[in-house]
Here is the input.
Amino acid sequence: MAYRLIKIADKILNIFIYLCLIVVFLFCLYALFDTIKIYTRASNNNVSVLKPNKNDPVESFNALKRINKDVCAWITLENTSIDYPVVKGKDNIEYLNKDVYKKYSLSGSLFLDYRNSEDFTDKYSIIFGHHMNGGAMFGDVQKFSNKDFFDKCVYGEIFTQNAIYKVEVFAFISTDAYDWNIYGINKDDNAQQEKLIEYIKNKATNYREVELSSSDNIICLSTCSTATTNGRHVILLKVIAQEKIGGD
Here is the structure.
């Protein structure tokens, strides 16, 4: 009798183990599917069809605005995967986990600091984006810590409703989320801009000698560092040319 009970208990235990293994397998399968889904949605290939067309800049940008009125720009950096729309929310939380279609997404969107003017006329503007593996979103920002990568990725464009800005990458900095020199917004203060330029020169891990003055507009691209909880990686861009569009 005892032997039979032991055999039954053993069979029940085996069934339980098999069920647990099936549950673990299904969970891993779901996690893999979910990860693939996240990175697929974060890929610039997923939004490339929305990119404004320079041959018809006004209407193509208006088409983007019709998808989401919060879209304020499109940013492209040469030789990187950074080629995305930029939105501006009511705060710096709204688009952390929301894509350009306003749907929930762990990869979020690239978004302009809510304190900035969406036409990028402020002396200093900040664009935030998640660090994603494979270079998605601002995953390539960290690569600028490598001197060879920094040297080959120099120019880019920021396409807005009224202008196309040609930009040049001139610095890479590792810092933290509490660095007010980097995360303070400057609308139109020459003295503050001069302090920022000096700070960048002293703080930069990689720096490209460019002519900088308080009259220049600077744009910061910021993402999380994978090394520390509050670590941040940023690259700094100088606006080097501007082409007006839309007849303004």
Remarks:
- Residues 25-44 have pLDDT under 50 and may be disordered.
- The CA atoms of residues 49 and 244 lie 23 Å apart.
